[in-house]
Each structure stands twice: as C-alpha cells, then as structure tokens.
Design goal:
With 102 residues, the chain is α/β, with parallel strands linked by helices. It is built from 4 helices and 5 strands.
Amino acid sequence: MKRIKKRWAEINKAIRPADRKKKCIEKEAFYAKILGMQTDEVELYFAKLQFENAEKPQEKVNSDQEMIQYISEEIGSIGYVNLNSISEKDKENIKIVCTVAI
C-alpha cells in the first residue's frame, strides 16, 4: 500500500487531511491524480492507521465552503475543492499547492 506523507516539512507540522463525506468529482480526482489511489484504497489506508496507530480519523466535511473554512482555521490541514469555489478573500487564508484538471 502506498505511504502518504505525514508532515509538512516547511512548518514541521503534521498534515491534517480533510475529506468530503460524500462522493464527488473533486474527491475522485484528488485521490487518483494526487495520491494515485482509488477511494476504497484511501479509506482502507486511513482505517488501518486508526486501528494500528490509534490515529484520529480525518476531518469530514459536507461542502467546498466547509472545506475552505476547515483549511483556513487548521494549521497543517490539506483538502480539495473546486477551484471556482475559492474567492479572493479565501486566497488570503489558504495556500493552493496544486490544481488538477477534471
């Protein structure tokens, strides 16, 4: 199983992943193109971490706006949203590290 990076080297903080509660095209694209994994593989990966290392489950949100809010408030967090959902004001509080064409 692929190993996912656990820390942001630049800020020496744990990466805090956020995920959507329901299936969406952004979720599928992020998993496939960034992680190189399918949804079931990612879910298995995080379930295994929770079981073996007693790690907290990843944050789950309902919408792009909830994702943006979580990312802007939690240092070290990472997530995915539709680029059209990000306002100029949002860009002041989050860092876009990658874009994926869908």
